[in-house]
Amino acid sequence: xxxxxxxxxxxxxxxxxxxxxxxxxxxxxxxxxxxxxxxxxxxxxxxxxxxxxxxxxxxxxxxxxxxxxxxxxxxxxxxxxxxxxxxxxxxxxxxxxxxxxxxxxxxxxxxxxxxxxxxxxxxxxxxxxxxxxxxxxxxxxxxxxxxxxxxxxxxxxxxxxxxxxxxxxxxxxxxxxxxxxxxxxxxxxxxxxxxxxxxxxxxxxxxxxxxxxxxxxxxxxxxxxxxxxxxxxxxxxxxxx
Length: 241
Known about the structure:
Elements (H helix, E strand, L loop, with lengths): L5 E10 L2 E11 L4 E5 L6 H8 L7 E6 L2 E2 L5 H4 L4 E4 L11 H10 L6 H11 L1 H5 L10 H13 L5 E5 L7 H18 L2 E6 L2 H7 L2 E6 L2 E7 H6 L1 H8 L5
Parallel strand pairs: 3-8, 3-9, 6-7, 7-8
Antiparallel strand pairs: 1-2, 1-4, 4-5, 9-10
Helix pairs in contact: 3-6
């Protein structure tokens, strides 16, 4: 059996004296969509940032594509076919849509730039309409599309998505999750998704993990977790948005 594309083994991370991650174990296989759900403040976004080396893991190790990246600087990790669409979108507000996408391509190389740009415009037609508009003037949904497209411009083997549904209208959330599903189905894109919207995330994912106070408390198939009584009670009551 081949090794996972991403393996997080016994990882701890701290903010000062506060332990944010307490011995986290997570694996993501090539071609999978894996989701991490949990309440606000559970440590989900910290895990995403720790994969990228800020903060660095204090214990344990993080292995991507067979290479131990636990102590690798963030800017070097970004060149490893590992891309992130961060929480809060963080598009470059003064740059146009086109310039934001160029920044995504710049991380690796411009070898396939024209082809990839056309691909992004096909996936997100709204971005084509807004190509010359500044990132900061886009709606929340358009900024999220731009953040994902910018990450995809580097042709990643693994896409980390941090809270893509945060603050978005239900219709836009459905659109974005449908794009993720399609990219996984047609291109085999591997996705590690952090989400508070447990219902959408577990419906989308092949496998899921539940995080509580910096620890993984449950794991299993996406649909299987969706049916678990404790998951439904904690994350799904009235949560079908």
